[in-house]
Design a protein that fits this description.
With about 290 residues, the chain is mainly alpha-helical. The protein has helices at about 25-35, 75-85, 105-110, 115-120, 135-155, 165-170, 175-185, 195-225; strands at about 15-20, 50, 65-70, 95-100, 225-230, 235-240. It is about 35% helix and about 10% strand. Strands 1-2 form a two-stranded parallel sheet. Strands 3-4 form a two-stranded parallel sheet. Strands 5-6 form a two-stranded parallel sheet. The chain is globular and about 70 Å long. It starts with 16 loop residues before the first strand and ends in a 50-residue tail after the last strand.
Length: about 290
């Protein structure tokens, strides 16, 4: 029953539901996020969204204020990440309602110690491992780290549109590649001097390549009379960094894909080789059905 008076007396919930799930194509997910950001006065606004744990990272919408969690997630880190999507506006607190199934042992356990768990749930966060400077770690994190280091440590690059200043400051940014290369050289104590040198050179070359591509992007936009910014801080300028699932990347040249700055470094194990050998030189054949 609705309110007879008050702030929500004349409000009617829009029951058109949007989805933030893996079964939705990328463009639909992006559109759903945009609509969720729309205020109630906007005719495109939505009031209900069905989501999986894909919202745990990267959903930064201050408008969201109510979340219903169905069953306890498998990990404490996922629970914390997902529930922190609401109440992000310090002036408008959020509410999380957890629905637990009495027939599920994990749900029952969390219900029985609900208060104690929430008072100290950071103690229950599972440890995660990240292999520094592995190929996948570099693919996911090097561009964002390099751009952030250049922006924060070299004042001409700090302003939102400082991304375009690389055309003037490129010669002074080699220190960024050197800093990352030096860190790669010393991040493992068990490496031999030869291995450390190879690791350093590998990271240095990748960092230099990103700087060069950054310069080319800035030059292309400058020739078109368009400014370059880091993300979307100011209007009227193209962005340098993109989310991994940004649909706009499909419309841009391949070099822009190097500037995907992910918000998570999960699942960045190093590559491994699998060598298949037969026993005693006898080939193993599968019988056909």
């Amino acid at each position: 029953m609705g309110e007879s008076q008050g702030l929500f007396a004349n409000r009617r919930i829009a029951y058109e539901v949007v989805e933030l799930t893996s079964r939705e194509p990328t463009n639909r997910v992006s559109e759903a996020k945009q609509r969720l950001e729309c205020p109630f006065s906007d005719e495109r606004h939505v009031d209900v969204a069905i989501a999986t744990n894909m919202i745990s990272v990267g959903l930064d919408i201050t408008r969201l204020g109510l979340m219903v969690v169905y069953s306890q997630p498998k990990t404490s880190s996922e629970y914390i990440q997902a529930t922190s999507r609401v109440g992000r506006d310090h002036q408008r607190p959020g509410l999380v309602v957890t629905l637990l199934n009495i027939n599920r042992p994990r749900d029952r356990s969390h219900y029985e110690r609900f208060a104690a768990f929430h008072e100290s749930f950071y103690r229950s966060v599972e440890a995660t491992s990240v292999t520094p400077f592995s190929p996948r770690a570099l693919d996911r994190g090097l561009a964002g780290t390099l751009v952030g280091l250049a922006r924060q440590t070299h004042s001409p690059m700090t302003a939102p549109r400082g991304a375009g200043e690389i055309l003037k400051e490129r010669a002074r940014l080699d220190f960024v590649a050197e800093a990352l290369a030096n860190r790669a050289q010393t991040h493992r104590r068990d490496m031999s001097p030869e291995e450390a040198a190879r690791e350093r050179e590998r990271v240095r070359l990748k960092a230099q390549d990103i700087l060069e591509e950054w310069s080319k992007i800035a030059m292309e936009y400058a020739q078109q009379g368009v400014a370059l910014q880091y993300q979307t801080e100011t209007g009227g300028a193209q962005r340098l960094l993109h989310d991994f699932l940004d649909p706009q990347l499909k419309l841009l040249p391949a070099r822009h894909w190097k500037f995907r700055a992910n918000r998570s470094l999960r699942d960045v194990e190093p590559n491994v080789n699998l060598w298949l050998k037969t026993l005693d030189g006898i080939d193993v054949e599968e019988d056909e059905p």
